[in-house]
Design goal:
Blueprint lengths: L3 E11 L5 E7 L2 E7 L1 H6 L6 E10 L4 E6 L2 H8 L7 H9 L2 H12 L1 H11 L1 H22 L5
Parallel strand pairs: 3-5
Antiparallel strand pairs: 1-2, 1-4, 2-3, 4-5
Length: 148
């Protein structure tokens, strides 16, 4: 598991549509990480030193790194309701038993969904995230009625 990277920024690129990545040289090895637009904007010019908090996603056929400039951005990313992130496990644990088999099938697509989130950004996940946020707040109000 690669939790963070610190090294010289070799390259950074942002394609139209929101896909951005950075390549950091760490001890002579170049690590390529997908980065958010906010992180991309905060990176130095190539040659400067950069630090990224990372999430490592392992599949049968790939190893992907997602990099973030600060821990808060990483924490929010981890809460996305997409397996294998923590938010995916949270949703799976809250689902009624009858929906868990379907959730298991969605979990197998998790790494592909993560890449899609980085390719299409907020446009792709705005609807599902808003619906899940509403569900979360409804559950919170139902379980703790005294909260605002």
């Amino acid at each position: 598991m690669i939790a963070s990277l610190r090294g010289a920024l070799l390259r950074k690129e942002a394609a139209p549509g929101g896909v951005a990545f950075a390549v950091l040289d760490v001890g002579g090895v170049g690590y390529r990480a997908f980065v958010s637009t906010g992180t991309f904007a905060s990176l130095p010019e190539p040659g400067g030193e950069a630090f990224l908090h990372t999430v490592t996603v392992v599949r049968e056929d790939s190893l992907s790194l997602f990099g973030f400039a600060d821990a808060d951005e990483l924490a929010l990313f981890n809460l996305l309701p997409v397996p294998p992130l923590d938010g995916g496990g949270l949703i799976g644990g809250l689902l009624p038993t009858r929906y868990r088999e379907g959730w298991h099938h969605i979990q197998q697509l998790g790494p592909l969904l993560l890449v899609a989130v980085f390719f299409f950004g907020g446009r792709l996940i705005a609807g599902p995230v808003n619906a899940l946020a509403a569900l979360f707040f409804s559950l919170t109000r139902a379980l703790a009625p005294g909260l605002p």
